[in-house]
């Protein structure tokens, strides 16, 4: 692809952004609504000397990615709900072993095989270490193709800086959406990170290295978890990202992430035009959760309406962030012929909260 | 006593895939001009040519055709 | 026929081999009077519609896990008749370990793998059974033995297992082969009913949509190109009946 | 200026192509475009719906919620679910070859187009989608027919170049109100 | 076993309690510290006509359990962290399909292969639907062998009543602990539930039944999730269990679950003897979290100290429950040669909170 | 020897066959000058200690997943030498699908399965390789072919795969067999170095602790009873060298 | 009356058996008992530690944290990690056959017992644990020797009945302060 | 020139498993009375009997024994 501005499916935008940023390995197993990513990399990675590897299962996918990451190279794995479940053990292993990678979960309706249409129901898994043990990884929730492109170099940087898996989540509706995007921000960045310090490339003269995922002395387990917690703390301090809109004098704030964020923002803009004191927050990082913007909310805020394509997941993080300082309510919607949250319902809730 | 055989066609199920036409040893089948509810121009038979061998019924992936005895 | 729900049109694509397999299963369940105590475990894949068209109890397993589900079911109701209906992606890719272990254990269930050489439901991607040079969305330049290996000979892998009572590769490529497939399937069902052990049938089947071919051409490809690599064959038959 | 369109049908009918082509044609006209979609799990025979927003301004929410200016119903199975997508005052095109009786709904304008029959006459039943799109362009001017025709070439690309002709033929036939003049 | 009072390992007590309550199928794959359960059932289930089935992996375990549950019979699966990860997809499927079963997770240090010694790090996975999608299942956290026995019939009842998987969690230290237990409460109860209404035993004359885990129409997905949410709400209303001690006039409350709960209770008793106004809460159900006891806390409570063998998981539920009404602090400990939380540290924290 | 860390005592039980395998690997790495670019992927099991005693880079994979980890590694560094060291539980029970797919793909890695017929590390439970009648904590009345199936013939399952360049079942039961095992292992290493495809060696090994036997008795059982069911044999050798 | 005991050693030395037997002996005396444990991942050669609380009252917390009345160190590899488990004023027994020099710690009473050598002399090296336990009973009376001997039969059960004799012999030899009188 | 061979025993590594003793063709090995640091009564050799065949070194699972040439 030569031009920088293209009209593409967001899953393809994700793939193209990877290519442009220098990622050369993609591991995947087909699953709707994530298969488009591997279709794209299968057709395009080879042109830049990369490889899409279709493994026999999601278990194999995440473990192939582990091996690749151990060589110091950055790879990616993409999937959706059921496949994401199967990857959790491996994601925990990679985190424990401090291996960087890029992950993508195009969320669909669950539990069970559920439905192939979009949802935002993997928030808990994504933000609270879906594997056993204590750990957190950075989670980015772009709301548009452009934001995918903008975030890709950031995610790659954090993967190397913190030596950790980094996760992107999109609801399936957004993943399948086609829109115009400018690829200029997706500069080659992968090659600028030196992984020689920690990668497992053969002992040579430097002495052996062993990637450890278990502990042979009980104290190792304690040390490992402490290290992971220290990283989580550093990320919480430094990596929070969000979009905010008209919070200064807001009485009611609407909070939504991903595509529903775009829908809600338009509604908030529309209500503002009517003179209603409504503000808007869209978390871009789900971990670390952008507590800072909640901490900085003006005293005028009476209520936060959290809108999600699930039955109440991110709302817990909002409640934890405001810790009782204002009321927090939730509107969730999952499935149906049009899986997106309903603008009408958001308008109704707002009308009840901000009587005209 | 020779049994009477009939080729029954449940045309509502037909998807006009053409397999039966291809395999019919007697070239007794063809697609017709009409559509069924699914939007397919379903199969019709020429009872003159048909020898009720049920080859079509054996291969039809949509259980449209069946030779029945009475 | 009580087993088959004629009023419900199949939702498979025109020409899809899953329809033939469904009809054969329905006929055999009916003929052997199994309906009352049959449970079909379907995999995730186009075969997952199989039970929509039959008056039998059915379980939808997670992708690749029909065999352990069938195993657990058979443990709980050993006198019921249990078969799985899985695609080649479900059975030979993600579910391969479960297949091999159940076969080796001699678990008295019947496994039907509808082998159409692609992941049909998700859009025709490469499966372990895709032929060399065949193009799919995930091997757009054709399957390459060096990168992807050769088509996996699943049936052959079970040849030396004592637990397997019936093992065959069948096909629906022509009316003659369909008739033969029915006989093989009947033996597999019998193997379970006679408590002889595990039974497995791999049924070569076309996926005209995934193969991006006209229906008739897809059956011809199945009869020739596919069968050359994956020959129709009965490997094990401890039932002893005609097939 | 912002327009919202819904294209609904059965999988395999090409409604997603209708939506994509609409976007590409809008982009030809220097508009912005966003398309989203839902679909059944079947490869064929399930439902498929494409939602399109085109605008000469930036597009925030890409969602359509009972506010579509134009709603195309290509198959009877989706009529009930998607007729409500049209805004009141909107236009509802339906494929009268398959949707045998006019759908029931108030305050919309109906456009009955025998798209499948027309395409069959043109020799390619699968071009029914393009026929309908051409007709829509003629009736509503949502995008110019020339933009559709040139966008089609881009959409099909090198690999499917051989399909350009028949599809353009269907587009133009639809635009012309039938296929008779092409006979 | 004839006598009712026995000295046994808690993992064995769990197994014996299952037998006495009428569970006859156990599926498992070896993993420390959960293998003792399967060793026990392997040796004893056959005596009552039951079967321990060792599957080839945890994936097979949970899916075998699914098949068994579909027949209307109650089975169990036991595991630890890495194996629990691998079961998540299946647990989500069982929940979606409304199949009852008993699960046991003997928690060890994670993420990764971690360490085989005890931890309480699987709290998030256990309480927030470790699989994708929206769903919750009842989670019991016994603190002693006796409580395992007492809870087993309750868990079985809830499994059948709500038609849901029910999960027990124990930290690995507790799982390996040996103590005296009275089996009298473990009465045969499984057989008293009629599963004919929903089980898949062959169509016969009743017409077919199909266990659905996916949706073939998009509206099914919406319905399924709504049904699961309604169950979760009912459980939240009716099923909260906890132990409380001296809350009436408490200024500081210590909150811990499982074995650390026992340790903390002893410390609180000891401090009370010194006249310090300290109270104690031990959640017994982790889902539903016993919000009621927190809602009912007297105004005298200034601070809640949450003590866990992890770096802060249940503490989120405590914070959500008190919603800013008092301060909530956390002391966590993981791994090391003695993985249990340190009594000394709890005493120090309390000394700082309640100056003598 | 630079590869081997003589100063570190093995933490395996007295008589454990893992020690012999570790020594053979160290010797071959040294003799073939592979140390600089070797990566060993160990499974979770007693074999997971293997790399503690060698001066080579090593990765500890999740239980059963060494092979995909090795695959990913080899993709990233195709010129490095990559072998997995797995137990029979790791490789043949939970990891069977990964093994078969890598073999079929012809992934150029070497897989060593130390087959001691039990899950050693977790306390000697039944593995797919446990012999009929053998008692373990999870089959306390002995493995029963009807309930548990026969020992899984893992090597035999790969016989028809074109991707496999070297395939053998070896043993450490006697000094003679140990010497033979070294030769087989050398061929497997060579198969990878010469980019001929996938190589697999199954090494029969004792677990005196898990078998609850005196060490010398356990080696005798290995030489006789185990080898009767799982014969020492070279199945495929595309290297062509002596072995 | 409540007593806390720690038994630490290398996997395979039987320290968990020492802990279990202590509990069973306490139960023989109608006391309550709780045992917990930690261990390495190795089947042999790793560390193994048994923590025991016995009491004539109900036992709340089963944990031992630098407050053990008795601490038995059977192997040099665990000395550093577990000598701190003893309460000040507690008793520390160590297996002087393997722990070659007296461990260093203040305000505890040391008991040096050549358990492995003694057991070797008795003809079963693996009975070192019982020898040490017997000696501990003699020195501290934490449980009566008779309770240990009869609990041993219960612990070993029918299957391991053949091991009762040698282990009881070791218990009694330890109790008697050595094995010389048995020669 | 005949090379001088020696059997080297790294007794700190020995776990007294007895395998070398069992396989030694010359019965040149035995366990001694002392313990090594791991607590095992390690192996000792009778250099008179030993023919330096390295059978013991081949089977020893703990890399205790080795015949070296100088
Ligand atoms: C864990 C998981 N991974 C992936 C999928 C997506 N998926 C659905 S069907 C399917 C493949 C179906 O192929 P096959 O089994 O060959 O059946 P076919 O449709 O060809 O008959 C896949 C990968 C899933 N549902 N769950
Ligand atoms: C997912 C998962 N399941 C189970 C375990 C527990 N586990 C650790 S080692 C092991 C078996 C080891 O047996 P094998 O692979 O034969 O190796 P051996 O110890 O016999 O050499 C198991 C089941 C685990 N660590 N992870
Ligand atoms: S084979 Fe069946 S579906 Fe196909 S055209 Fe013939 S009747 Fe119709
Ligand atoms: S029954 Fe035979 S002859 Fe008649 S239409 Fe069918 S295939 Fe042709
Ligand atoms: S995609 Fe293929 S397998 Fe699926 S229904 Fe269509 S033809 Fe059949
Ligand atoms: S348990 Fe078995 S395999 Fe593990 S170290 Fe001991 S003898 Fe070796
Ligand atoms: S074989 Fe090795 S470890 Fe065993 S006794 Fe001989 S020298 Fe010691
Ligand atoms: S070298 Fe040979 S003769 Fe000497 S001790 Fe070893 S085995 Fe015996
Ligand atoms: Mg398929
Ligand atoms: Mg093993």
Automatic annotation (TrEMBL), chains A, E:
**TM regions (residue ranges):** none
- Its domain of life reads Bacteria
Which positions fall inside the Pyruvate flavodoxin/ferredoxin oxidoreductase pyrimidine binding domain? 16-246
Cite the Pyruvate:ferredoxin oxidoreductase core domain residue spans from the record: 250-342
Q: Which InterPro entries match?
A: 2-oxoacid_oxidoreductase (IPR052368), PFOR_II (IPR033412), Pyrv_Fd/Flavodoxin_OxRdtase_N (IPR002880), THDP-binding (IPR029061), Transketo_C/PFOR_II (IPR009014)
Gene3D superfamilies referenced in this protein's UniProt entry, alphabetically:
3.40.50.920, 3.40.50.970
Please report the name of this protein according to its UniProt entry: 2-oxoglutarate ferredoxin oxidoreductase subunit alpha
Keyword terms of this UniProt record: Oxidoreductase
An example molecular function term from Gene Ontology annotations? oxidoreductase activity
Automatic annotation (TrEMBL), chains B, H:
Q: Name one GO molecular function term.
A: metal ion binding
Question: What's the protein name?
Answer: 2-oxoglutarate ferredoxin oxidoreductase subunit delta
One Pfam annotation, family name?
Answer: Fer4_7
Segments forming domain 4Fe-4S ferredoxin-type: 5-34, 41-70
Indicate whether Iron-sulfur appears among the record's keywords: yes
**What is the protein's species of origin?**
Desulforhopalus singaporensis
The family database entries (InterPro entries) matched by this protein are listed as: 4Fe4S_Fe-S-bd, 4Fe4S_Fe_S_CS, Polyferredoxin-like_ET
Which keywords accompany this UniProt record? Answer: Iron, Iron-sulfur, Metal-binding
Its lineage reads: Bacteria, Pseudomonadati, Thermodesulfobacteriota, Desulfobulbia, Desulfobulbales
From TrEMBL, chains C, F:
Q: According to the UniProt entry, where is the signal peptide? A: none
Keyword entries, A-Z: Oxidoreductase
**InterPro entries in the record:** 2-oxoacid:Fd_oxidoreductase, THDP-binding, TPP_enzyme_TPP-bd
Q: Which residues form the Thiamine pyrophosphate enzyme TPP-binding domain?
A: 52-203
- GO terms (BP aspect): cellular respiration; small molecule metabolic process
State the Gene Ontology terms under molecular function: oxidoreductase activity, acting on the aldehyde or oxo group of donors, iron-sulfur protein as acceptor; thiamine pyrophosphate binding
Query: What Pfam families does this protein map onto?
Result: TPP_enzyme_C (PF02775)
What is the designated name of this protein? Answer: 2-oxoglutarate ferredoxin oxidoreductase subunit beta
This chain's source organism reads: Desulforhopalus singaporensis
Q: What is the lineage of its organism?
A: Bacteria, Pseudomonadati, Thermodesulfobacteriota, Desulfobulbia, Desulfobulbales
UniProtKB/TrEMBL annotation, chains D, G:
Q: Say which species the protein is native to.
A: Desulforhopalus singaporensis
Q: Which GO terms describe its molecular function?
A: oxidoreductase activity, acting on the aldehyde or oxo group of donors
Keywords from the UniProt entry: Oxidoreductase
Q: Which InterPro entries match?
A: 2-oxoglutarate_synth_KorC (IPR052554), Pyrv/ketoisovalerate_OxRed_cat (IPR019752), Pyrv_flavodox_OxRed_cen (IPR002869)
Q: What is this protein called?
A: 2-oxoglutarate ferredoxin oxidoreductase subunit gamma
Which SUPFAM superfamilies would you find in this protein's record?
Pyruvate-ferredoxin oxidoreductase, PFOR, domain III (SSF53323)
The beginning of the lineage is: Bacteria, Pseudomonadati, Thermodesulfobacteriota, Desulfobulbia, Desulfobulbales
Pfam families reported for this sequence: POR (PF01558)
Question: What residue stretches are annotated with the Pyruvate/ketoisovalerate oxidoreductase catalytic domain?
Answer: 11-176
Superkingdom is Bacteria
């Amino acid at each position: 692809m030569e031009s920088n501005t293209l009209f593409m499916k967001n899953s393809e935008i994700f793939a193209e952004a990877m290519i442009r940023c220098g990622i050369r390995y993609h591991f995947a197993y087909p699953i709707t609504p994530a298969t488009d990513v591997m279709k794209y990399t299968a057709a395009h990675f080879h042109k830049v000397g990369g490889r899409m590897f279709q493994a026999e299962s999601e278990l194999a996918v995440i473990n192939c990615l582990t091996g690749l990451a151990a060589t110091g190279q950055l790879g990616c794995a993409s999937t959706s709900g059921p496949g994401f479940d199967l990857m959790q053990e491996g994601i925990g292993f990679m985190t424990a072993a401090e291996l960087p990678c890029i992950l993508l979960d195009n969320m669909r309706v669950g539990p069970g095989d559920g439905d192939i249409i979009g949802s935002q129901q993997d928030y808990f898994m994504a933000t609270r270490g879906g594997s056993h043990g204590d750990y957190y990884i950075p989670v980015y929730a772009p709301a548009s193709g452009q934001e995918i492109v903008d975030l890709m170099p950031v995610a790659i940087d954090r993967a190397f800086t913190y030596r950790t898996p980094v996760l992107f989540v999109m609801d399936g509706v957004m993943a399948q959406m086609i829109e115009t995007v400018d690829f200029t921000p997706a500069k080659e960045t992968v090659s600028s990170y030196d992984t020689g310090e920690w990668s497992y490339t053969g002992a040579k003269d430097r002495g052996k290295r062993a990637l450890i995922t278990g502990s042979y002395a009980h104290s190792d387990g304690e040390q490992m978890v402490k290290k992971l917690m220290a990283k989580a703390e550093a990320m919480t301090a430094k990596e929070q990202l969000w979009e905010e809109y008209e919070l200064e004098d807001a009485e009611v704030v609407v909070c939504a992430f991903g595509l529903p964020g775009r829908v809600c923002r338009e509604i908030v803009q529309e209500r503002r035009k009517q003179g209603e004191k409504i503000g808007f927050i869209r978390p871009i990082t789900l971990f670390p959760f952008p507590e800072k913007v909640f901490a900085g909310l003006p005293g005028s805020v009476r209520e936060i309406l959290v809108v999600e394509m699930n039955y109440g997941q991110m709302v817990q993080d909002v409640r934890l962030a405001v810790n009782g300082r204002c009321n927090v309510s939730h509107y969730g919607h999952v499935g149906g012929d049009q899986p997106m949250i309903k603008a009408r319902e958001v308008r109704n809730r707002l009308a009840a909260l901000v009587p005209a | 006593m020779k049994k009477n055989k009939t080729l029954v066609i449940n045309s509502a199920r037909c998807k006009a895939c053409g397999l039966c036409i291809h395999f019919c040893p007697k070239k007794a089948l063809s697609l017709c001009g009409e559509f069924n509810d699914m939007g397919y121009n379903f199969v019709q038979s020429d009872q003159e040519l048909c020898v009720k061998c049920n080859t079509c019924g054996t291969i039809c992936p949509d259980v449209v055709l069946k030779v029945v005895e009475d | 026929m009580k087993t088959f729900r004629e009023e419900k049109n199949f939702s498979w694509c025109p020409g899809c081999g899953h329809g033939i397999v469904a009809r054969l299963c329905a006929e055999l369940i009916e003929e052997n009077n199994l309906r009352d105590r049959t449970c079909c475990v379907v995999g995730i894949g186009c075969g997952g519609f199989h039970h929509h068209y039959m008056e039998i109890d059915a379980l939808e397993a997670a992708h690749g896990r029909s065999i352990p589900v069938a195993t657990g079911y058979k443990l709980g109701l050993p006198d019921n008749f249990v078969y799985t209906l899985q695609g080649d992606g479900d059975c030979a890719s993600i579910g391969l370990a479960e297949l091999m272990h159940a076969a080796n254990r001699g678990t008295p269930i019947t496994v039907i793998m509808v082998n159409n050489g692609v992941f049909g439901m998700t859009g025709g991607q490469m499966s372990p059974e895709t032929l060399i040079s065949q193009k799919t969305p995930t091997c757009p330049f054709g399957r390459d033995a060096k990168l992807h290996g050769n088509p996996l000979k699943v049936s052959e892998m079970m040849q030396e297992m004592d637990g397997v009572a019936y093992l065959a590769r069948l096909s629906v490529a022509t009316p003659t082969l369909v008739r033969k497939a029915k006989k093989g399937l009947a033996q597999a069902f019998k193997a379970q009913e006679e408590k002889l052990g595990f039974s497995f049938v791999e049924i070569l089947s076309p996926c005209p949509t995934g193969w991006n071919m006209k229906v008739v051409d897809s059956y011809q490809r199945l009869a020739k190109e596919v069968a050359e690599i994956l020959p129709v064959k009965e490997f094990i038959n401890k039932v002893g009946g005609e097939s | 200026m912002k327009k919202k369109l819904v294209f609904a049908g059965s999988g395999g009918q090409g409604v997603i192509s209708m939506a994509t082509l609409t976007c590409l044609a809008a982009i030809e006209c220097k508009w912005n475009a966003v398309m989203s979609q839902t679909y059944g799990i079947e490869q064929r025979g399930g439902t498929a719906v494409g939602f399109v927003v085109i605008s000469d301004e930036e597009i925030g929410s890409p969602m359509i919620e009972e506010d579509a200016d134009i709603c195309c119903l290509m198959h009877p199975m989706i009529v009930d679910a998607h007729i409500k997508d049209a805004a009141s005052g909107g236009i509802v095109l339906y494929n009268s070859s398959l949707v045998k009786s006019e759908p029931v709904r108030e305050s919309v304008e109906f456009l009955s187009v025998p798209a499948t029959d027309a395409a069959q006459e043109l020799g390619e039943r699968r071009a029914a989608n393009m026929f309908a799109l051409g007709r829509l362009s003629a009736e509503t001017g949502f995008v110019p027919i020339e933009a559709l025709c040139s966008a089609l070439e881009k959409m099909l690309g090198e690999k499917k170049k051989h399909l350009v002709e028949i599809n353009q033929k269907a587009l133009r036939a639809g635009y012309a109100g039938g296929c008779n003049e092409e006979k």
